[in-house]
Structure formats: C-alpha cells, structure tokens
Amino acid sequence: MDLWYTEKQTDNFGITMKVTRTYENEQTDFQHLTMIETEEWGTMLTLDGMVMTSVRDEFVYHEMVAHPALVTHPNPENVLVVGGGDGGVIREVMKHPKVKKAVLVDIDGKVIEYSKKYLPTIAGELDNPRVEVIVGDGYMHIAKHKNAYDVIMVDSTEPVGPAVELFSKGFYQGIYEALKEDGIFVAQTDNPWFKADLIQTVNRDVKEIFPIVRVYGANIPTYPSGLWTFTMGSKKHDPLAVEAASIPEFETKYYTPRLHAAAFVLPKFVEDLVK
Predict the structure, then answer these.
(1) Strand locations in 136-248, DSSP E?
(2) Distance (Å, rounded) from C-alpha 25 to C-alpha 229?
C-alpha cells in the first residue's frame, strides 16, 4: 500500500507526493512537525501541514532569501535570520566573507534539532563559529536589539500559528529600528496566486516604513503555486542599482549575478499588486 503526503494549499487545491518513510511526526510546543522521505523531493520538513523545505529544491528559496540583500549591502558584517531553523539561509549567508557574525533566532528548537539530524546538507553551517543560534522569540529579539544589524532576513512559515506576528506592521517597524542607518531587510511574502491580499498588505506596510521597497520572485515547485515572492525594504541601498559585474563569485545553484536584476522583473499581474 502506497503512502502519500498531501498539502491542502487552499480549500480546493493541493499538492501530493509519495512518501517512502516517516522519520518524525511530532506536536512540538509550537507546531506540528513532520520529517519525511519522499520519492520525488527527497527528505522533506513540514510544519502544520505545510512544506517548509525539501532536499531537491531547497536551494532556490534559501539562495533567494540571502543573496539579493547581501550583495546589495556594501558591508553586511552583522546579519540576523528570524526563523529558518533548518539552517538553509544561514548556509548561504556563510558564503559571504564580509559577514562577521550571523545570529539565527528560531522559536522552535525541535526544527533545529531535527534539521541537523535529517537535513545535514541544509543545516551544516549552524555550527559555524561565525553563527550564534538562539532558541527564542524573533519578534522579542528584534525589539531588544536597536541599531544592531546590517541585514535582517525573515525566514518564516506562512502567517499561521507562531508566525502570525512576523507579518505585522509593528514587526516591520521593529526591524527598521533594529537595523543600522543603511540596513536592509528581506522577508518571504508568499505567492500571488493564492495570497494576493497578503502581498498587497505587506507591501503597503513596508512602504510606510522603508524609503526603498522592492519585490522579487523565484520558482519553488514545492511551495503553493510554484511562484514565490520576497519583499526587500532598505534604508539606503537599492538592489536595482547593483551591477552584475560587481557581484562576487560564490557557489550557487539558482542565484547568479545576471539573475539578480532579472528577479525584480515581475509578471504584470504581480506588478499590479504592488504598485
């Protein structure tokens, strides 16, 4: 008998995949966590019934959270990642030698624990001496660290459960205050097919706080609709002003210097959402 995992992405649509093994199936203090082995996507982490990451396509999301902001900021020495307990964004951040310290704050220590155990190619840099891992509330961490970071990256789940406050205007204001005078922040902002209202709300809120706001996209097949957006807020530096020739070389599978500017070219219906 075959076992299949299905993520119900809307009331009328979902994705499904064949599962060959279940490693963990646990209700943590914050969310329902599963770590499964899938035939098509390899080892996969899900939280509250939503795919967070899989071995086969994880590089797209993690590279696109990290690199556009880090190449836009001229000297990103201190970086904060809120969420992201699987370690993928931290892995990409560590590819930038200008980063002296990266702090990861995830509210659920089980995500970190199981990612280290079952997703070593993703979580492998969490023990890097340049990385500090904190199990705690990212919202409160930001509130207590004014003018502390050059770049802040919000690697959250969709706005359900413990992640709801990470999509609030108050959180974005806190991020602004936690950034230095030329700081940059980036957050995943879901997909335009099913969450158009969310993208519009986030874009409006961030524009009321940051002078430079850019939305960009990527293709991530295991995420709802496959088309995913990210929103960048910057106090000073515009990612569209970055020239491809100035971007240093580092190992990637999706992001490239030429892709940097292209990622900010949105389909017309997405462009209309954020005008």
Answers:
(1) 149-155, 179-188, 212-219, 227-234
(2) 29
Using N-to-C axis directions, what is the helix angle for 169-178 and 196-207, rounded to 10°?
40
**To which H or E segment does residue 171 belong?**
helix 169-178
Binding-site entries for spermidine: 62, 86, 155-158
Binding-site annotation: residue ranges for S-methyl-5'-thioadenosine: 31, 106, 137-138, 162
Residue labelled with tokens 């649509």: 13
184-236 per-position pLDDT tens digit: 999 999 999 999 999 999 999 999 999 999 999 999 999 999 999 999 999 99
Residues 6 or more apart whose CB falls under 8 angstroms from that of 82 comprise 105, 106, 138, 139, 141, 142, 152, 153, 154, 155, 156, 166
Q: What is the pLDDT of residues 246-265, one digit of tens each?
A: 999 899 999 999 999 999 99
- Catalytic residue numbers read 155
Quote the tokens at residue 182: 């030329």
Query: Which residue in 150, 140, 212 sits closest to 174, CA to CA?
Result: 140
- In contact, 42 and 56? CB cutoff 8 Å: yes
Spatial separation of the C-alpha atoms in residues 212 and 119, rounded to whole Å: 35
The yes or no reply on domain 58-273 and CATH 3.30.420.40 is no
- Pairing relationship of beta strands 179-188 and 227-234 according to DSSP bridges: antiparallel
Specify the CATH number for 3-53; select among 2.30.140.10, 2.60.200.20, 3.40.50.2000, 3.40.50.10860.
Answer: 2.30.140.10
Binding site as annotated, residues: 31, 62, 86, 106, 137-138, 155-158, 162
Domain ranges across the chain: 3-53, 58-273
Q: Which residues contact 157 (CB under 8 A, 6 or more apart)?
A: 31, 47, 48, 50, 52, 83, 163
